[in-house]
Amino acid sequence: MQSKTVQELRALAQSMGIEGYSRMRKDELLSALKKAERSAQRKEAAKSKAAPSKGKQAEPVKPKGAAARKKPAAEEEIPPAEHIERRDEHFASEEEQVEDAKFMTAPPGMQAPATAFTGDLGEDLDALPPVHGPKLTLLAQKPGVLHAYWSLEPGRTARQPGLLLRLSYVTEQTAAIIEEAPLPSDYGHWYFHVDPAMPGTEVYLQLGHYAEDGEFVTAIRHGAVRLPRLGASSSTDRNWWVNDEDFRRMYLRSGGLLRGDKLTWPGGVSSPGGAITSRFL
Amino acid sequence: MNPKGYFALVLHAHLPFVRHPEYDRFLEEDWFFEALTETYLPLLEVFEGLERDGIHFRVTMSLTPPLLSMMTDPLLQQRYERYLKERLLALEGERKRTEGDPYFQPVVEFYTHFFERLRHQFVDRYQRDVTQAFRRLMEAGHLEIITCGATHGYLPLLAQQEESLYAQLSMAVRTHQRILGRRPTGIWLPECGYIPGVDRLLAEFGIDFFFLDSHGVLNADPRPKYGVHRPVRTPGGPAAFARDYESSKQVWSAEEGYPGDSVYREFYRDAGFDVHAPHIDAMLHAGLRTFTGLKYHRITGKGDWKEPYHPGWARERAAEHAGHFLFNRQRQVEWLASFLDRPPIIVAPYDAELFGHWWFEGPQWIDFLFRKMACDQEDIRAITPREYLDWHGDLQTSQPPECSWGAGGFHEVWLNGSNDWIYPYLHSAAERLSGLVQRFPDADGDRAWALDQAARELLLAQSSDWAFIMKTATSVDYAVRRTKTHLHRFNRLADMAEYGHYDHDYLRAVSDRDSLFPDIDYQIFQRRPMA
Q: What's B123's DSSP letter?
C-alpha cells in the first residue's frame, strides 16, 4: 500500500466509496483506506455469519440496493457481528418443525403409513377438471420473486408461436420492460426474479406477441401487483417522533434485519414451472 | 403499583378439518386426538388450576373454526373416547410387560394416571365437548378467545378474489359466535399472512386487533415509534400487535430454546415403534406402525441412545425454565421502560401445539410462568390485547407491509414449486362460485343446497394446511388427495347448481362427509363493489 502513488490511492479510495478522497494527503488516504478495509471485513464477517451461502441462490434477497438507496439510518453502518442475532436456519425451521409435527404419524426416516383416503364419491384423483382459460395471474412470492401462471384454450400456443410473457414496472413517470419470457405451453407457471431494489413499486404482466410491425400486441393483461418490500420505512411520524438511534436499537434487537434471506425450495429459480399436470404426484 | 410493562401469551390452536365417517378408523384423525391428549386438555387443566388457586393469568387463544367444528362433532367425540379407551387398555398390557422394571415401570404408571385423568376430564367433566370449558374460562375473563380464517386460508394468496377473503372472515366470525356465544374481537390471521387492505375488511367484521410477525410492524410506514413493543393502528382501524423476537427465540430455538433440554420428553421415540406386543398392535391402524402417544424416553442428547423419561425431573426443569423466562422478560421491560414514555407490551405468540404435543412439559411451563409472574414480582403483568387497547389505546397509525410469519417472512412456504399448482384451481373456483352467486342471488331448495355445499368444498380446499404439508413433505399424499377431492366435489356441485340437474344421493353423501359449518350460506362468496 505504501508503495502506491497518490493517484493510485485516490482511485482505490474512490472505488471503496470514501468521501473527500480528492482533498486528502497520502497519509490521510492511507489511514482512510485502512479504516474502510477494516469496516469492509467486519461487514464481510457479519455477512458470512449472516448468510451461509446457499449456493443456488441466484440473487441476494435482502435488497441491499434498496437499503443503500433509501439509506435508513439503521442500515448505514452494520453493527459488529456479535450484535446481530440471526434468525438462523434452525430457528425458522423450528417453528416449521412444530407445525409439521402436528401432521406426523411416524418418526422421520420411518416409512409413514400410506393414507387410506381415496375420493369415494366418484372423484378421479388422477385428473382434475381443466381450469377454463384464458387466464393470467401474477402473485408476489417474496421481495424479488414473482410467480405467474397462465391458462389458454388448448392448442393456442401451437397455433400461434411467438407468444410471450412480458413483465413491466411502472413509476409515476415511466414504464419499462423488466423481462420477457417465451410461453412454452398452453398452461404453466413461471417464477420471475427481479431486482428487489428496482424503481417503482408496482409491476404488471402481459401475455401477447410481437406483430409484424414490431408492436407488442397484448392478449391478456394482469393488473398491477405491488412488490413486497423489506427494510424499515424512511419516513418518521411528526406526532410519534422517534430518533434514529432509538429506532435503530429497537430495530436490531427485535430481529429487524433477519428476514427474507432464505431461499431453500424449488421454484426459486427463474424457470418454466412446467405444465400443471406434470406436477401431480 | 403499576407494572413497568405487560406480557401477552398468544396461543394459536389449529388443525385442518379431518373427519372421515366413511371409514371406521382413520389415521389422519389421530392429528386431532393427539392434540387433544397432549395440548388442549392439559392446557385446560392448567388454566382451571390457576383459576382455582386465584392466580392472575391472561391467555389469548385462537380456536380456529375447523378446530371448533371438530371439537363439537359427535362422531369425533366418540372416536376420541375410543382412542382414550384403547390407550388405557394397552397400558394394562404395558404394566404387565414392564413389571419389576425400575426404569420403565414408573413411566408406564405415569401414563396410566395421565390417561385416566384425561378420560375423567373429557368424558365426565366436559361431557365430551371441550369448547364449553374454553368458553367458561373466556366468560370468567381469563381467556381471550380469538378467531382465524374459516378454514385457515392463507389470505395473501387468495386475495385475487376478494370474495374469498370475505367468505373466510364471514364464516369464521359466524362459527365463533355459534359455538362460543360471542363475536370475536380479535383474529389470528392464518400464518400471520397480511396484505394492505385486509385491515379494512377486518374492521367490517368488528375485529379490533390482529397479530403480525416482528418485521410486519418494524417495517411499517411511517416508522413505529415503539417498535414491536406497542401495537400500531392500521389505516383500516384494527390494531396490529407484533411478535416479540426475544421471547419467541427463547422458546422456539433448538439450540438455546427450552424444549430441547435433555430431561424433557423425546417426541420421536414411541412405543408404537419400540414395543412389539399384541396390546400395542391393537392401537395401530390396520397393522401399520404409527405413533401411539406412549413415549417413554427423554431427549438425553443428540445421539440415538435415549434414557428413560423421568416426569419429576422434567417438571423441575420446566419450573426453572419458567423462572428464567420471567427473569429475562423483567430485564427486557426494565430496558424498554428506560426510554419509552408508555408501558410496553411483550407479545409472545406460539402454535398452541408446541405446548404439550411437541414440548410435552410446555403446559407445566405455562403453569409455573403465570404462578411466578403473579406471586414473585411486580414489574410485569399478564394482559390480553383487548385489555391493553382499553387502557393504553392511543396508538400511532402506520401501514404494515405485506408479510407473514412463515420461513422467509413472506409467502414462499405456501407458494413454491411443490404447491403452486393449486392456485389456478383455487382462484378459478372462487371466480366461478361468485359468478353463480351473482346469477342465482335467491336460490332455494336443491340449488341452495348444492351452492351451500359447493361453498363448503371451496373453503375446505382453501385451507393453507394442504399447501404447507405439500411443502414440508409429511403426509403429502393425503394433502394432495384432499385438495383434489374438494375441487372435484366443488365442480360437480357447481355444475348441478348451474344446469339444474340434481343428484340427491350425491348431495346427501357429500354433505355427510364434509359436514362443517351447518349454518353456511353460499352468499358469503358474493362479489362486492370495490371500496
A: I
